[in-house]
Amino acid sequence: MTLKYINANNLKFAYHEEGQGPLVMLLHGFPDIATTWSHQIPALVAQGYRVVTPYLRGYRPTEIPIGGFYDKATLVEDIAGLIKMFSEDQPVHLVGQDWGAIISYAVLAAYPELISRAVVMAVPHPGQVTESLVNPKHIHRSFHWWFFQLPDLPEKAILANNQAFIDYLWSYWTIPSHRDEAHIQAVKDTLEKPGVLAATLAYYRAMFDVTKADPNLISVREKMARPIEVPTLALCGKEDLRAELMLEQSQYFNKEYEFKLVDNAGHFLHREQPEQVTKLIIDWLKK
């Protein structure tokens, strides 16, 4: 896939683009990169969609801003800015997994006019996440959130032993039979690039430290708290503990909403069961 660049929200973003037709933007999570959607892109293009897969803020070859913010409102402004640059005033389809889903929930609430239909994967609505913060098994499942709050040690732990920490996360979060060595190595290669690891961990550090949030985005945060009006499909691997949290989140959606479990899949369901997940995405977008 050819790498392209575009400026949005005062940042230079790298992205891949394939196909012609209605725009579908696919957002990756952590530890992951834009090529995570390699199974979905050909099928979406074959169905007549134009597919854009950006590297999120801090993930090279996207620019890493010096002293930049990584709070959720800033990430929302990134994606809203990208959509406006690509969409030519037409609403687009938005699909996100992990951090891509976290950002997507907020974009859907803050900028519903930008999105036609959406798919969020593997992460519950922030209202459900808040409840999980006092649940022991979910605290354990999301141990990296807390570990990443420490200074310096997470960076050292991740880079040690050929990034065995990244191998561990993929193994912990996927079904035992899943093998994805080439893609995981590409993720590692990205995390080794200058500035990337500090930037990606800054997402987590901004979650719990209000001093790391852009003070100029108060109005965006207020809009992010609104109920979601965009037709949304939520997907989760049946073997992912977070499925428990996603079962009961329909109260956060005012319009069309569905939740589906994907059998024999964990957190990276779009790579563990690509054919099943791709079909669910396409069927939803074509409704």
Task: Describe this entry's structure for a reader.
The chain is an alpha/beta fold. It is 44% helix and 17% strand. The protein has 13 helices and 8 strands. The chain has helices at 40-46, 72-87, 99-110, 126-132, 136-141, 143-147, 153-173, 181-191, 196-208, 218-224, 243-246, 269-272, 274-285, and strands spanning 3-8, 11-18, 23-27, 50-54, 92-97, 115-121, 232-237, 257-262. Strands 1-2-4-3-5-6-7-8 form an 8-stranded mixed beta sheet, sandwiched between helices. The longest helix is centred in the middle third of the chain and has 21 residues, at 153-173. The protein starts with a strand and ends with a helix. The mean pLDDT is 97.
SSE layout:
Elements: E1 3-8, E2 11-18, E3 23-27, H1 40-46, E4 50-54, H2 72-87, E5 92-97, H3 99-110, E6 115-121, H4 126-132, H5 136-141, H6 143-147, H7 153-173, H8 181-191, H9 196-208, H10 218-224, E7 232-237, H11 243-246, E8 257-262, H12 269-272, H13 274-285
Parallel strand pairs: 3-4, 3-5, 5-6, 6-7, 7-8
Antiparallel strand pairs: 1-2, 2-4
Helix pairs in contact: 2-3, 2-10, 3-10
What string gives the helices and strands in order?
EEEHEHEHEHHHHHHHEHEHH
Mean pLDDT: 97
Q: Outline, from the CA principal axes?
A: globular
Distance between the termini: 28 Å
**Please, how many helices?**
13
Q: Which class best fits the helix and strand makeup?
A: alpha/beta
Write down how many β-strands occur, each being a DSSP E stretch of 2 or more residues: 8
Strand order of the largest sheet: 1-2-4-3-5-6-7-8
Low-confidence stretches: none
What composes the largest sheet? Answer: 8 strands, mixed
Helical amount: 40-55%
Computed over alpha carbons, the radius of gyration is 17 Å
Amount of beta strand: 15-25%
